[in-house]
Design brief:
heterodimer, A: mainly alpha, Helicase, Ruva Protein, domain 3, B: alpha/beta, Glutaredoxin, 5-stranded mixed β-sheet, 5 helices, about 40% helix, about 20% strand, elongated
């Protein structure tokens, strides 16, 4: 019994929302619609694609995708139509252009800055002065001074 | 000393970015419709379904298109502000009753007051979709040539009315 319980706990819990259900009279088109809706951000929920979102808005978008597909629109035409109304941020993979350039180039710029910083740091380390080593004579002198110290302290206390 | 300055400067820059990020509403996506002609539509009026409204009728006037619905909570927040604006007679307000039942829309206005010069009923939300509506309420400022000049996502507040919408309307009415 306990074993079964532990086994049940170890099983992955299926909290994944799953693809939102809609009545589909054409499974091929439905699959095409879902794969296209995967590329579109739900603007109401933001971190979920339209394909899995249960929001009213996503539902509308899916219905409009179906209508457009029935009317013979290509995937690109449907995406263009969405961008025209909601902007490029509706796409999970926005096109590289003037407007999205800062977004796309940011990782490379940061990498470059990090690299420059690293090179500078390493150069600095190379030019650092080697630790000064003591000659035998100096060492003896230092030892002698350290030995003297307690005596000197006594003197000052007295 | 200099070795502390660089990390400090980086820290300040990061802080500024993070602080700005805190104040931003990620739901507010810049609309590509601003600067473009308001999408064409023809819809029945909410109060008189046998009559129709089309944005063409507003050519030559600066007007507000306010998207609302009886089921929308934030619309109740902006409603008194729209009421006051309508009493001032500065700018015509056209309502778009988005994805709503006619009876519900009419009842809301009968109960709370009707700030609109007229209301178009967008029962299936197709027109709202063309206007890029994804969160009601939304308000558009449209100029005399029928170009969308501004889009507000979220409720009209005394602040954004005073600081953004009314100055823009005054500018466009010149």
């Amino acid at each position: 019994m306990r074993f079964l319980l532990i086994l049940a706990l170890l099983l992955p819990s299926f909290s994944y929302a799953g693809v939102a259900k809609d009545i589909a009279d054409d499974p091929v088109m439905e699959a095409r619609m879902i794969s296209l809706a995967d590329k579109v951000r739900c603007l109401v929920c933001q971190s979920e694609p339209v394909s899995t979102s249960h929001s009213d808005w996503s539902n509308d978008v899916r219905n409009i995708m179906r209508d457009k597909m029935k009317a013979g629109a290509s995937d690109q035409q449907i995406l263009d139509m969405l961008v025209e109304r909601f902007g490029k941020s509706v796409l999970y993979d926005p096109p590289v252009d003037k407007e999205t350039m800062p977004l796309w180039s940011a990782p490379f710029i940061l990498l470059l800055l990090g690299g420059v910083f690293l090179v500078f740091q390493m150069k600095k380390r190379n030019t650092q002065v080697a630790e000064a080593s003591l000659s035998e004579q100096d060492e003896q002198r230092a030892a002698a001074l350290l030995d003297e110290k307690p005596a000197a302290q006594k003197d000052t206390q007295a | 000393m200099t070795r502390f300055i660089l990390p400090f400067v980086i820290f300040i820059i990061l802080s500024v970015f993070l602080y700005k990020g805190l104040g931003r509403d990620t739901r507010e996506v810049p609309s590509p419709l601003v600067g473009r002609a308001a999408p064409v539509f023809v819809l029945p009026l909410l109060h008189e379904p046998d009559k129709q409204f089309s944005p063409k009728q507003m050519l030559g006037k600066v007007w507000l298109l306010n998207v609302w619905a009886s089921w929308c909570g934030a619309c109740k927040d902006e409603h008194p502000i729209l009421m006051e604006l309508s009493h001032q007679n500065i700018v015509p307000i056209v309502g778009l009753d988005y994805k709503d039942k006619r009876a519900d829309g009419e009842m809301t206005l009968a109960r709370a007051g009707d700030p609109y010069n007229l209301v178009a009923a967008d029962a299936d939300g197709k027109v709202g979709f063309d206007y890029g509506v994804y969160g009601v309420p939304e308000t558009y400022v449209i100029d005399k040539q029928g170009i969308i000049k501004y889009k507000l996502i979220g409720p009209v507040t005394p602040q954004n009315l005073r600081e953004t919408i009314l100055p823009l309307v005054a500018e466009l009415q010149k």
